[in-house]
Specification:
This protein is an alpha+beta fold and about 500 residues long. It contains 5 helices and 35 strands. A hairpin with a 6-residue loop joins β34 and β35. InterPro entries: PEGA.
Length: about 500
């Protein structure tokens, strides 16, 4: 039944009216009736860049005065020449830009390190579409192109390097470049580190800023490497001179000394001056220690008589007159010894830079003193093999001295006896005895008897020698010396 109803519907179309309606629809669908959008672009970019730098390209697409909206707008960017320039991405799209609206597109642009300098052209192309009045048909595409220029600057400069002394090794940012003097070319702009090295000299590190298309100059005086020395003395407080320059009082440390040999002088009152050398190595510290020696004095020794042996604190030094030099300050025992004279002992004190005079007047020794000395010397020599006590030596000396005294007494007795005999010979001691005096006058004898003792005196007769005591007496007489009877062999019968 339904089918029957539908089948009964009839559409009656007037051909003329149908054509009119179609023409009206086409008119609304045409761009002329819909209105074409008006698109504008704005491009902004850094006018100049250096290799290694980057920036952002900004493109603004706007519908400024049209009667319709923009469909499927695509912005593409190209760089001419393109070497050394990277754009990522190179195109971007948006599906719709309404009437009197805009859309911003951004494109990162990077300049590589190897990019050559010069001008670059940025070409921006906008591709877009539009719709009819009924939004049925897409019209287009339409294209809009714009340009922007920028410059890639020369990023390189130069560095001239000079040193005193020359021939220093040059390192730029850690890379060896050569020896001074030299000019380093093609140095990228910016801040760099320059290192200068030379054997025996301190390294010099400095920074330098390179400006494109310009030259930076670096000039450096290299300083020699130095060392230090620590000086100490015993006693402390001594004046220290290094290379004839006063440094101070010990102990001290002197820095900034050039490598090599240096002279050092040390002085202190009452002590010997020190003149020496020491070696300094670069970048090192050394030490110098000195035990100061007291100044020396002199001893002038003379004796009367001269030629005496001199012993200084037991050490033989020579014979007088004697001048001893360079004697260290101290107290000394001096022995002056000469055969036949008593030893002389003196104690002297030698002071810094002074001379001590010793005058010895030696005293002769007695015989007993000589014997005692000889025994003492013999005992001293024997003591190296057998130790003899001092009491034993004194006992032997006393014994020898007693023997010597006995010897002197014997000699004295003999001399006295001889003197006594001579006196008896000259004057006989007859005491109270009676004497018979026989006086000879030639051959005549006159006898005088006094008691029982006969004394005869020959006058003018020949004298004989007593055969008993060898005294002179007349023969036939009684010896006047010994009293014995003497026969006179020369008497007449």
């Amino acid at each position: 039944m339904i089918a029957e109803k539908y089948s009964e519907i009839k559409i009656l179309i007037n051909p003329l009216k149908a054509i009119s309606i179609l023409l009206i629809l086409l008119a609304f669908a045409s761009p002329a009736y819909a209105g074409t959008p008006v698109v504008d672009t704005q491009i902004s970019f850094t006018p100049s860049l250096y290799p290694g730098e980057s920036s952002t390209l900004k493109v603004i697409v706007s519908e400024v005065s049209g009667s319709d909206w923009v469909k499927d707008a695509t912005v593409s960017v190209q760089i001419s020449p393109s070497s050394g320039v990277v754009i990522t991405p190179s195109s971007q799209s948006v599906s719709r830009i309404d009437k009197k609206s805009s859309h911003t597109f951004t494109f990162p642009i990077e300049i590589v390190e190897s990019a050559s300098s010069g001008n670059r052209n940025i070409i921006v192309t906008v591709k877009y579409y539009e719709m009819d009045l009924l939004n049925i048909n897409t019209l287009g595409p339409y294209y809009l192109q714009d340009n922007q220029y920028f410059n890639i600057n020369n990023p390189y400069g130069k560095i001239s390097v000079n040193t005193n002394p020359q021939n220093a090794d040059i390192f730029l940012d850690g890379q060896y470049k050569g020896t001074s003097p030299m000019t380093i070319s093609n140095v990228i702009q910016g801040k760099h580190t320059l290192l200068l090295k030379k054997e025996g000299y301190n390294d010099v590190s400095t920074s330098v800023t390179v400006i494109p298309d310009s030259q930076s100059a670096i000039s450096k005086i290299l300083s020699l490497k130095t060392g230090s020395v620590s000086v100490s003395t015993t006693p402390s407080g001594a004046k220290v001179y290094i290379d004839d320059k006063y440094i101070g009082a010990s102990p001290l440390t002197s820095t900034g000394l050039l490598p090599g040999s240096h002279a050092i002088s040390i002085s202190m009152n009452g002590y010997r001056d020190v003149s020496d050398t020491f070696i300094i190595n670069a970048d090192s510290s050394s030490s110098y220690k000195k035990l100061l020696v007291k100044q020396n004095g002199n001893i002038d020794i003379d004796s009367t008589p001269s030629g005496a042996k001199v012993y200084l604190s037991g050490s033989y030094k020579g014979v007088t007159p004697l001048y001893l030099e360079s004697i260290s300050p101290d107290t000394y025992n001096i022995n002056v010894v000469k055969d036949g004279y008593k030893d002389l002992q003196r104690t002297v004190t030698v002071k810094d830079g002074s001379t001590v005079s010793v005058s010895a007047s030696l005293e002769k020794m007695s015989i007993a003193e000589k014997v005692v000395k000889q025994v003492s010397e013999e005992s001293s020599s024997i003591s190296t093999k057998n130790t003899i006590s001092t009491k034993e030596i004194e006992f032997k000396a006393q014994l020898l001295e007693a023997g010597f005294i006995v010897f002197l007494l014997i000699i004295s007795f003999i001399l006295l006896r001889k003197i006594f005999k001579n006196r008896v010979r000259e004057t006989p001691n007859i005491g109270n005895q009676n004497i018979i005096n026989n006086i000879h006058y030639g051959d005549n004898i006159e006898t005088n008897i006094t008691d029982s003792v006969v004394q005869r005196t020959n006058i003018g007769s020949k004298r004989e020698t007593c055969p008993y005591c060898n005294d002179a007496a007349s023969m036939g007489d009684v010896c006047s010396a010994c009293g014995r009877h003497i026969e006179n062999t020369n008497s007449k019968p």
